Amino acid sequence: MDKAPDEAKVQFSLVIIACFIIKIYVIQEVYNHHGVIIRRLDRYGEREAAGSSANFISFISSGTMHILEHNNDRWILWVPEEKSLRVESDPTEWEVVNTEKPKHNPGNDEKLEAKKIWINLNDLKSLQLRRNSNKMFFDLKDNTTFDVDFQNGDAYNFISSFKSYAILEKSRRSRQKYYVKGSVNRELSKSFAELDLFGEQGNLVARFMKDLHDRPFETTLTAFSKLTGAVASGLTGSARPEGASNINHGLSHGDEYEVIATTSQQPSLGMSPRPEVMRGPPLSVEEWMRHANDDGTISRIESLLQTIFRGGIDHALRYDVWKYLLNYLPFRLNHTEAAELRRMKIKEYQTLCQQWQSFTPGQEERFSLFRDRKSLISKDVNRTDRTFEYFAGDRNPHLDSLNNILMSYMMYNFDLGYVQGMSDLLSPILMLMDNEPDAFWCFVGFMDRTMGNFMMEQTSMKEQLLQLACLLQILDPELANYLNAHESGNLFFCFRWLLVLFKREFSNEDIMIIWEVFWTGLPCPNFHLLFCIAILETEREQIMANDNGLSDILAHVNSLSMNIDRDAMLCKAEAMYLQLQANAEKLPKMACLTLGLAVSVDASAAEQEERFKDTHVTPSDDEDDAFEKAISYSFL
Question: For residue 74, which phi and psi values (nearest 5 degrees)?
Fold first, then answer.
């Protein structure tokens, strides 16, 4: 018996349920703070005269500050309480007296409604803390300023919470001022271990209700689409189940990455074929000794890096060689200089530890940013690589070391602090070094290379994804066009690979070799992007099979974890580079800049540049919003 009629009935029932439930999710409160006084200032910072503006609130009231989500917008809403607080002293000071509760009058409701203050997060220009930690300024893009007084808590708590919903950039001129750069997707701050990447599996109704909660409008319209398809096919069961709904669905022009001319394949660049590439043996003790001089300095650096790039490093040497690769120790130092530098570094690490360990409970209570980061580190430490013997079991001292290093790095680079994913990068380093100071300074060197991946603005991640799309369009235009036509041309399903440099995709031994190759900087900048494309090209048949859509592609990419041939991918990535290098004059400018190749100035290269633009996934003006929405739809 056909199952389509039953499925159609279920879908129809779910759509009816959605029609009732969806109203609940139109506006959602995500934060509130009671006892907040707010007043509007003119552009010179003085309070407006009572009669100078119709918008001025003549009664300064204590109210509740809310952060609300509506569709994909976020708003700050201030609602006054019924008790009015009359100012009976100098109008420029905050002296609140004569609190009274007026008798209820229907007209009062209208007055209170008129006194509500709505601020769209996108209209905020900056937030500025005042010397008194209870007060701050909200500066809007139209030059409006609100003076805000948090009576029942300090403004730092608001800033700490607000960072979960907005991208804040600290001013270089004032440590108390934060510029608002837009909204953020709060789910992006979760570690990938917590993300529900396989939500498509499981019970139909449970899956529908979860999707309805996460994205009600898209889920409802998707259900309508499935129901329509079943009806159109005469309920014969011939309707093909759809994958995840289109990322672009429901987004106006300018809200998403625009896919241009995805139906036609990019003309071939006419490149010469790829050469064959072989891997070599790892750096041996004998080879290392040939580079190490009697005084401790390291010579013939280029040859050394070539050997490491070709075959990695013998495990017995990693403790020493990694310190050089990660800029803990410069190659030029002799034995005495290296020992002195290490002594100084150990002392500096101990100082950093003392700084965060000396915080009293009272200090932590008043320092919400420190407190929140400390809590996040503690949570991540307890779930980082616990299947490895080195971190297994309760009361494991190595977990304490992991925690100490991450806390010290937070003090070392307080502007960046701690972001989930950093513990993934530290874990192999600590297992190798097996002591805190050396592991810390190697981790610092690694973070200096990858810091952009963890910036709240996500500029580096966006740039890498665009570069990846550019290279894929050149190396495998058929796969690139397929992905463009199936909601995946932005390559956001590669986000995890780039964020933690494939840490979740390979065994510990494999990832050590892969990272060593990347750290050499050979054969070009951004070699890790070619490594990505090598994996995608290897899996192209599976990706393109059965007309797979976004959800199927994402599920397949995540199923590759611990099932990728390390050496085969390194060989293929190197062969790709050699092919591109041999045809550099034919490449678009963006590809040359990405790989550090000389940019051609001849007419044919310019023509290829224009040809590439006609088929490439390019960001619209509102790329920040598009990035967050697409990541949300891809990973949740």
Answer: -125, 140
Classify residue 105 by its DSSP letter: -
Which H/E stretch holds residue 86? strand 73-87
Q: Using alpha carbons only, how large is the chain's radius of gyration in Å?
A: 29
Residues 6+ positions from 286 with CB-CB distance below 8 Å:
none
pLDDT at position 602 is 54
Helix (H, G, I), strand (E, B) or coil at 198: coil
How far from chain centre, in Å, is Cα 285? Answer: 40
Q: Measure the CA–CA gap between 304 and 315, rounded to whole angstroms.
A: 16
Greater confidence, 348 or 22? 348
Residue 377 pLDDT more than 90?
A: yes
What angle is formed at CA 592 by the lines to CA 591 and CA 595, rounded to 5 degrees?
Answer: 85
Question: 525 is written with which tokens?
Answer: 């900048």
Q: What is the token pair recorded at 514?
A: 């892969």
- 564 forms beta bridges with none
**How far is residue 634's CA from residue 554's CA, in Å, rounded to a whole number?**
7
- Give Cα separations from 450 to 20, 186, 411 (angstroms): 46, 21, 18
CA distance 506 to 514: 9
Question: Position of tokens 């939500």?
Answer: 199
**Residues across the chain:** 636
The conformational region for residue 432 under phi > 0 = left, psi -120 to 50 = alpha, else beta, is alpha
Q: Which residues lie closer than 8 Å to 609 by C-beta, 6 or more apart?
A: 588, 589, 590
Task: Report the distance separating Cα 241 and Cα 239, nearest Å.
Answer: 6
Q: What is the pLDDT of residues 16-40, one digit of tens each?
A: 555 545 444 456 777 777 888 888 8
CA 383, 166, 497: angle at the middle one, nearest 5?
Answer: 45
